[in-house]
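2024-03-11 09:14:02 INFO worker-7 job=invfold-0412 stage=load source=structure_tokens
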């Protein structure tokens, strides 16, 4: 995570289903160990978050709009509810080449307050 986004606001539990999918569908089916990388950067005044695995990748012909899973549609719907058209979710995948989910959303910062 680059320093410029360390205090960026991210919706609660947005990353959990993405990381869970990376483990369940990308890494777990393999017999070899795998890697999941999470990256957050500022990109043209927006927050870009990536969850990437080096696992199996989606099968040939996979379409995120027609998927039967729960994690990606739920994350997409939360982004739509919170940001309307101000957020995007994109995918990069190929069989055997891993999977990448990239979310871009408005870059806002939380202010920290001390509790007594």
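2024-03-11 09:14:09 INFO worker-7 stage=emit residues=116
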């Amino acid at each position: 995570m680059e320093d410029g986004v360390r205090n960026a606001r991210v919706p609660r539990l947005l990353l959990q289903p993405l990381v869970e999918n990376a483990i369940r569908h990308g890494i777990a089916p393999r017999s070899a160990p795998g890697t999941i990388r999470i990256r957050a950067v500022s990109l043209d005044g927006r927050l870009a978050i990536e969850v990437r695995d080096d696992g199996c990748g989606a099968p040939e012909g996979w379409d995120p709009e027609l998927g039967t899973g729960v994690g990606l549609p739920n994350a997409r719907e939360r982004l739509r509810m919170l940001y309307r058209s101000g957020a995007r979710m994109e995918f990069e995948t190929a069989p055997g080449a891993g999977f990448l989910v990239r979310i871009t959303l408005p870059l806002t910062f939380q202010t920290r307050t001390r509790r007594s």
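2024-03-11 09:14:09 INFO worker-7 stage=report msg="Strands lie at 36-43, 46-53, 88-93, 99-106."
2024-03-11 09:14:10 INFO worker-7 job finished
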